[in-house]
Amino acid sequence: MSWEDYVRRVEPYVPGEQPNKARMIKLNTNENPYPPAPGVAAALKGIQDETLRLYPDPTAKKLVDALAERYQVSPSQVFVGVGSDDVLAMAFLTFFQSEKPLLFPDISYSFYKVWAELYRIPYECVPLDENFRIRPEDYRRENGGIIFPNPNAPTSLLLPLDEVEKIVAGSPDSVVIVDEAYIDFGGESALSLLPKYDNLLVVQTFSKSRSMAGMRIGYAIGSEKMIKAMMDVKYSFNSYTMNRTSIELGYEAVKDEAYFQETIAKVKATRERAAKRLAELGFHFPEPSANFIFAEHESVPAAELFQALREKDIYVRHFNGARVENFLRITIGTDEEMEELFAFLKEYLRK
Amino acid sequence: MSWEDYVRRVEPYVPGEQPNKARMIKLNTNENPYPPAPGVAAALKGIQDETLRLYPDPTAKKLVDALAERYQVSPSQVFVGVGSDDVLAMAFLTFFQSEKPLLFPDISYSFYKVWAELYRIPYECVPLDENFRIRPEDYRRENGGIIFPNPNAPTSLLLPLDEVEKIVAGSPDSVVIVDEAYIDFGGESALSLLPKYDNLLVVQTFSKSRSMAGMRIGYAIGSEKMIKAMMDVKYSFNSYTMNRTSIELGYEAVKDEAYFQETIAKVKATRERAAKRLAELGFHFPEPSANFIFAEHESVPAAELFQALREKDIYVRHFNGARVENFLRITIGTDEEMEELFAFLKEYLRK
């Protein structure tokens, strides 16, 4: 025997491509093409380096209070973490202790399966319908919890709020997590359902609509009981996760509502133009509600387009797997970036 | 049944006291009294806010390369994380999959037990001897892994390198983790043993000797095989943990060796004076090798002293539990802070 016999076995994983070229068009990881709110730059300059010697506030009170005010909830209903991945993993660990299976869509965020396996949570994938839609009635069965993104990724499809409510109401004895990483780009948040349902947890992130993927900030909002349970688990094994810069810069981002709305409006306007152009170029796609379009071309395979774009330093995302392998996930960039994409596609597709 | 029946049960935990008063002497969480290297302040001003919209480099290459150069190892031998708590938890998850018990000292860092329970790792606490010493021969038994801090916390006692080697050599089929959070303040690191032992993992942190507790940066150095195993586990469920500011500021801290040495020399000189004064005031303590002293008074109970100090806004740490409840853990502050502590103690103890 050797120590290597006791190493945890995992699928070796290669981190996603993060190209870093001076002249590239990066539409592959759903980042926001616009910088964070102007106050963030000022806050960065204002941080006193001598404060860095001290541990951060483990409760991240400044950031939590700002989020509570923005979303009109009590601070005791807000949990923050190192990106929504950290928040979601903590929620899995806290809430999904049942023997019954956790349910999530078969085409969805790939990490749900990973966390379920990590924490030995039984799970079942629920197939989307033939139009990539989540059908609430499919979740009306015995379960130990439910999670789905809304809008869904990588499809960009929105589930209307009344359908979300059917899922939450249909499983009052399970925690239902609505993963709203992309909700700000065009959907109604399930936050408005919180007063009615104490089994609902809404998770959002600073990585997309707030242009701060580089800072790793995510949060969950739910009933006080639920947030207390997550805090108890979190504090029991890692008290200090949000560093001082995340707390300060995150706070500034939340405070600037006007900039936030303006940035979202710009991304949505570009998305509308992009949808029109892609359709003209022969692409089909579900109606996009996130900051990306999930598009299939009428004649050219996605793998081929992916490679052709890559050679021109235009990066989009291509997934393997049944039903999705002929799609490209294209992040909405600036208008200029999208024009370059369309110009290339027009020539390549001879449209 | 209700969703609350499936919530993970943990000991509700109240985060440690982080007082924040204008006039206080904070000697309770082993922070460094000096600011980070001057380059850190410059780097903070130099971060371009527009880069924050992009995900950080998941490999944190800039920081990893700097650590590899500083410690004369290959970058493939370095793993970085969100504080050494994150790094240690990841090591537990990766390496301790045996049915045999993980061994660690009974008086030690309190989170070892927490992570073992979290990941369902069987464990046994090995008692320190009557002088709070780790005896290598006690670890010479069937085990699924070994971990201990060196210097130990909260005792501040150093285990000499040849004794550390006995433990590592004695369990070649287990991973042995030496948690060196405080090693820079007065011990020889086990890093020099790495060429001989592929089962050794050394964990260090930026929170103490590099004055950056507020940034949450820790790292592990070990054999390539070992670091690869940790990376595989980490990437399999959370690719992006180190944010952009941590990578940049951490890099600057590592590059300034002169400042690092100077700061450590100052803390050690203050510790020497403090040890002398505390002895004169009637305290007994194991020989300190970390940036704190673990002291028991000859006549006044620790709980009483703790309260009396607290009322004067002088914060030290007091632990409950057999054998340690009559000790105070006193962080080494600036000379001025220590003088205020001694002045108060002198008066209180009428010495």
Under the CATH scheme, the architecture of the largest domain in chain A is: 3-Layer(aba) Sandwich
* CATH classification class of the largest domain in chain A: Alpha Beta
Determine the number of helices of chain A (DSSP H or I, runs of at least 4 residues). 10
Largest interface, Cβ cutoff 8 Å: A-B, 86 and 87 residues
What is the tally of beta strands of chain A?
A: 13
CATH superfamily of the largest domain in chain A: Type I PLP-dependent aspartate aminotransferase-like (Major domain)
Gyration radius of chain A, rounded? 21 Å
Report the end-to-end length of chain A measured between terminal Cα atoms.
63 Å
Instruction: State the helicity of chain A in percent bands.
Output: 25-40%
CATH fold-level name of the largest domain in chain A:
Aspartate Aminotransferase, domain 2
Give the overall pLDDT of chain A as a whole number: 95
Count of individual domains of chain A: 2
* Major sheet size, sense and barrel closure of chain A: 7 strands, mixed
Using the alpha-carbon principal axes, give the shape of chain A.
globular
Helix/strand order of chain A, N-terminal first: EHHEHEHEEHEEEHHHEEHEEEH
Proportion of β residues of chain A?
5-15%
* Widest β-sheet, arrangement of strands of chain A: 2-8-7-6-5-3-4
Low-confidence stretches of chain A: none
- Oligomerization state: homodimer
Content-based structural category of chain A: alpha/beta
